[in-house]
Every structure is written in C-alpha cells, then in structure tokens.
Model the fold of this input.
Amino acid sequence: MHSDLGNNQVQVTIFGKSYTVKGMADPSYITNVANYVDRKMHDVEDSLANTQSENRVAILAAMTVTDEMFTLRRNHEKQINQFEDRIQSLSDLIDESLST
Done:
C-alpha cells in the first residue's frame, strides 16, 4: 500500500485471486470493500448445490449486493418521506397555533 499523487494502491484478494486496486479512497476502505465482495462470493458459493464457475458466482454475488443496495435505498427513501411528512405536520401545527 502506498500513496501516489492522491491515488492509493492496495493489494487485495477476492475469491482466491490477488488484485491491485488503485483508488482515491483510504486503503482500509478499499480493503474492507474487497473483503466484503470476497465474503459475498464465498457465501454464494456455499449456498449452491453444485460447483459453479467463478463468473457465475461473481454475477450471483453482484446481484446479492445490488439487492442489498436497492433495499437500503428503498428504506432510506421511505424514511425521508416519513420525515418530510412529519416536518410538514409540525409546520402545519405551528402555523395553526400562530394564527389563533
């Protein structure tokens, strides 16, 4: 790991293969992301009845991670809508109390 003009170069292992990843993010963040991907690929592999190609495992892991992201995004949007509704209710209540 070293810094090169703001780019960090990190050696990571995903599904038994080593990769050099360059990025602006902190090296520990890059390592954590790679570890997460590795863990998801192994989880997918462990859940399959038969041995599958690395490409198939990678695609299924990507779909799993994408599903997690979509679920979190949907929940986040739902929370924002709830907060906005609550803020509007409080604003209406304040306006109502000031007008009386």
